[in-house]
From TrEMBL:
This is Uncharacterized protein. It comes from the Bacteria.
Length: 249
C-alpha cells in the first residue's frame, strides 16, 4: 500500500544563482541563489521524503582519489562506501545542496577542451548542473517502484522548457548527461561522485534519448520493475511539462 507523505516546503540557498526561467515550472521559485519548492505543485508523485546521502566533503576527501583494482571494481568500492558512510535525511534542501556539489564536480568546465565535443559549451554545463540538481529529489524504491517524480525526471522536456532549447538541443544535452561525456574515466568519476546521493545514476532511456530521463537509485534496485513502471507512466507527465514551453509570438 502506498502512503503519500505530507508535503513541506523545500528551501535551499546554493552557491550560485539559478536561471530565473525555472520559475516557468509549477512549484519552483528561483530568486537568485535561493530556491523554494512547493512539493504539492512541483511533484507529479511524492511518496517518500527520505533520501540517502553522504556529505560531499567526505566523498571528495576519502573516495574520489581511490582507484579500482583487479580485485575491487569501482562499483564495489562505491557500494561499500555508501554502506559505510550513507545516512538518511528528510531535509530535501540538504539533498539539493549536496547534488549541486556533485554536479558542479561532474560538469566542470575543464573537460571542455579535451573531450572533442565542440557543440557543448560552458553554458550547456550550467544547464546540466542546474537540471541534474533538481533531479536528485526523484526516487526509486528497492523493489523498482518509482516513488518521487518531478518535471526534471523528463530531462530533455524540462531543459527545453526552461532554457528555450529545441528538441535537437535538448537531446544533445540529454546525451551528455547520460553518457558520462562518452568517456570511461568520466564514467568512473560519476560512479564515485553519485555515492554522495546514495548510489548510482540509472537511466530510463534505452539506446536513444526518449525523454525518459533518470534517477539516482540505490544499488540493488530492481531495474526490471523500474523499466516496466516507467514505460507505463511517462507520457502524460511529459505532456504536462511540455505545456509550459514558451512559444514565440
Amino acid at each position: 500500500m502506498t502512503t503519500t507523505v505530507t508535503p513541506k516546503t523545500i528551501t535551499v540557498e546554493l552557491p550560485e544563482a539559478s536561471d530565473p526561467r525555472w520559475n516557468r515550472l509549477p512549484g519552483i521559485t528561483v530568486d537568485g541563489k535561493r530556491i523554494t519548492i512547493d512539493p504539492t505543485d512541483y511533484f507529479f508523485r511524492f511518496e517518500n521524503s527520505t533520501w540517502l546521502v553522504i556529505d560531499w566533503e567526505t566523498v571528495k576527501s576519502e573516495l574520489l582519489h581511490v582507484v579500482e583494482t583487479p580485485a575491487a571494481a569501482v562499483e564495489q568500492i562505491a557500494l561499500d562506501f555508501v554502506t559505510t558512510h550513507g545516512r538518511a535525511t528528510r531535509d530535501a534542501g540538504e539533498v539539493l545542496a549536496i547534488a549541486f556539489q556533485v554536479y558542479s564536480y561532474l560538469f566542470r568546465e575543464e573537460h571542455l577542451a579535451t573531450l572533442g565535443l565542440p557543440d557543448v559549451t560552458a553554458e550547456h554545463l550550467r544547464m546540466l548542473r542546474e537540471a541534474a540538481t533538481f533531479m536528485a529529489l526523484n526516487k526509486v524504491e528497492l523493489d523498482g517502484h518509482i516513488s518521487n517524480v518531478g518535471p526534471c525526471w523528463f530531462f530533455p522536456s524540462a531543459t527545453g522548457v526552461v532554457f528555450d532549447l529545441s528538441e535537437t538541443e535538448g537531446q544533445m544535452l540529454d546525451e551528455v548527461y547520460h553518457g558520462g561525456w562518452f568517456n570511461e574515466y568520466r564514467r568512473i568519476e560519476a560512479i564515485k561522485a553519485h555515492t554522495a546521493l546514495g548510489g548510482r545514476l540509472v537511466h530510463g532511456c534505452q539506446s536513444a534519448p526518449n525523454q525518459s530521463g533518470g534517477v539516482v537509485a540505490a544499488y540493488g534496485t530492481s531495474m526490471a520493475n523500474f523499466a516496466v513502471e516507467l514505460a507505463g507512466m511517462k507520457d502524460e507527465w511529459i505532456q504536462r511539462v511540455e505545456s509550459h514551453r514558451v512559444t514565440a509570438v
